[in-house]
Each structure stands twice: as structure tokens, then as C-alpha cells.
Amino acid sequence: MDIWLAGVGSWLPDAVSTEEAVAHGWYDAADRDTSGMRAVRVAGELPAPDMAVRAARAALRRSAATGLNPDDFGALLHCATYHQGPDGWSAPHYVLRHTLDRPIGAAQIGPGCLGMLAALELAAHRLAADPSRDAVLVTSGDNFSAPVVDRWNSSKLFLLADGGAAAVVSRRGGFARLVSIGSASAPALEELHRAGEQLFPPGITVGRSLNFEERNAHLRRQWEQGTSAPSVHFGEVVADTVDRVLDEAGTSLEKVARVCHTGYARGALHSIYLAPLDIEPSLGTWEFSRDIGHVGAADPFIALEHLWTRGEVTPGDHVLLLAAGPGMEVACAVVEITGEYADDQTIDRTNDMVKEDDR
């Protein structure tokens, strides 16, 4: 059974340049030069689920050509890497209410920055298991403008950016066919994202900031004092997983047209993806992502939309979607572009796929 991406969409707020951040004293000039980042997207007070809703509406409109309607959807899978709203409230059902507005299941998916690829795999499994529904809506949204988050300095690996993305996963055809998908984890590395912090009470409940650099410094002190560093090299996990998924797709990196990856800064992009895979930045989406930042789980799909809508990938091209996240875990998928992009102006914006409203 073939699984397709019937539509993809994103929503990004305005950019704040790293030059401006340096001028305001938010970001160190040396860090800017090292990172290679030119700008990040900042949403201010716009809630993360609303960005997911806007992205979902674009993806749903683009999927209308396949004949899908809201009753054809069996689930909504929403991804988030940071807090979405009130405790005890469901962001996935908010997104559902303001898009498909049908009484179907909605769930939040992790882990972290590879959430949308994990959700894509889950959506494919669901469609294979349940023939009664032909589509699943996958969404993502994050806003890191909270007072306890310093988007410019929380990590040397990336600059946190705000935005949303969405994809319609379907059995009825679309602009890209899912050829293969897979993931792998290195649980021995899970400590990298909690080092020095207690599990209870959760940091956010006592006003602790999201600061990966503090955790890295804690680990370095431990290693200097004689604690053994993990023997697992995450780059090898990335390379092995990509090789396996490409092999399952019957292709190779040499035949892949582009790689849509996490929006890392230059050093992390090289050490986690480019060097292990022995590829050049031009094969990826670095020149695009360095003006966006790291939008949580949304990055590979924002990049895919960018390439497809600009004709940088065309029918017959294979594209590798790649993301890594806490755990440590890596996920990737190979999709084959099967349809040309049709200008959004040709889309019937009165179709009943999307619930348009003012909140």
C-alpha cells in the first residue's frame, strides 16, 4: 500500500536578524560568527497552536486536489517541543477544532525535534492498519518567546525559532510518495539533555530556564573529574540509520536530490549530519535554514515545502527528511516527488476542507 504526502504547509513569523540581536546585546558577536546564522523567526505573543493551525490550513488546501474532505481523516497528530498553553489542556484538540473540526482522535507526539517524522511514521502505520479512513493530519507548532527561555544563548547548537508546519498523510495520492522511513536511538546518551537537573520537580515549575549550555557544562565537569564519557558516537547512529532507510528505499545518498534537515547552526550541522554522511551543505538546506533558525519538530517539513514550492525539487527526485532529538534519537524518511507545485492562487479557498474562523 502506497502512502503519500497530499499536502504540506508552514507558517513563519517575521525574522529578527542576528546582527540586530548583537546590537541589542542579546547575542555575542563571536557566537554569531561561529554559528553562521543570519536570522531567526520570532512570533512574540502568538500562541504555538495557532501557528500550527495556520500551517495546517495551508496543507489542507493543497491536499484538496486529491479529493479529501474532513470526514476522510482518522486522526490528528500534533508535535511540540515546548509548552503549548495551560497545564491540563489539550493543544492537539485545539488544532483539531480549528481545522478539521471532526470527532476523531488527536494526540501529542514526541520526542522533541524529530516529532514530525515520528508522527509521519505513526500516521503511515495507522493508515495501513485502519482502512476506514484515508488520511491523517500531522501538525507542529512552537513559540520560544517565554520569559524563561533565552533563544539566543540556550544552546550553541542552534538558535530557537518560532513557527508551525503541517502535512497531510494519505492513501489517495499527493505530491510526494513515502518510499521508506525509520528511526534509531542511543539511550546511553539520554543524560545529555538532563545533566545536572533533577527530574522532580520539573524545572519549569520552579522557574528554571531552558538552558542546554548549563547541562553541557555540568557534563564536561564530570568528565574532567574522571567520569567516563558515553562510548556511543551519535554521528555513527545517524549514518547507520540513514544508510538503512536509503537501502530500504532502493537508493543511495548519491541519488538523493536534497536533504531537508534540522535547522542547526553551522558547527552542529557539520558534526551531527554533514560529516557523518560525508555530504556538502549545498545538498541540504543550510542557506535557507540559516535565515529561519530551529523551529522544533517542524524543520524538515518547512524545508520540504520551501524546496517544492520553488521548484528546487521536481517529479522523480528523491528527498531525504532528517531530524534528531533528545533520547538521543534520529529519524529519517525518503520521499519521491511525484507532482509539480501548483501556485496557491489556483487553490479554491472556499473549499470545506478547512474551518476558517476568528478566535
Structural overview:
The protein has one domain (1-186, 232-336): Peroxisomal Thiolase, Chain A, domain 1, CATH 3.40.47. Helices cover 30% and strands 20% of the residues. The protein has helices at residues 18-23, 29-35, 48-63, 91-97, 115-129, 212-224, 234-249, 266-277, 286-289, 299-309, and strands spanning 3-11, 15-17, 39-41, 73-79, 105-109, 135-142, 163-170, 176-185, 258-260, 318-325, 329-337. It has a 9-stranded mixed beta sheet with strand order 5-4-6-7-1-8-11-10-9, with helices on both faces. A two-stranded antiparallel ribbon has the order 2-3. It is globular and about 60 Å long. The two termini are 39 Å apart.
- How many β strands by DSSP? 11
Radius of gyration: 20 Å
What are the segments in which pLDDT stays under 50 over at least 5 consecutive residues?
A: 345-351
Query: How much helical structure, as a percent, in the residues?
Result: 25-40%
Helix vs. strand class:
alpha/beta
For the record, the CATH architecture stands as 3-Layer(aba) Sandwich
Could you give me the name of the CATH homologous superfamily?
Answer: Thiolase/Chalcone synthase
Give the integer mean of the pLDDT values: 93
| Total separate domains | 1
Assess the beta-strand content as a share of residues: 15-25%
User: In CATH's first tier, which class applies?
Assistant: Alpha Beta
Bulk shape = globular
Instruction: Tell me the span between the first and last alpha carbons.
Output: 39 Å
Strand order of the largest sheet: 5-4-6-7-1-8-11-10-9
- Output the helix-strand order: EEHHEHEHEHEEEHHEHHHEE
Number of helices: 10
Query: Looking at CATH, which topology would you report?
Result: Peroxisomal Thiolase, Chain A, domain 1
Main sheet, how many strands, which sense, barrel?
Answer: 9 strands, mixed
Keywords: Acyltransferase, Cytoplasm, Transferase
GO molecular function: 3-oxoacyl-[acyl-carrier-protein] synthase activity
Organism: Streptomyces albiflavescens
Domain Beta-ketoacyl-[acyl-carrier-protein] synthase III N-terminal: 112-172
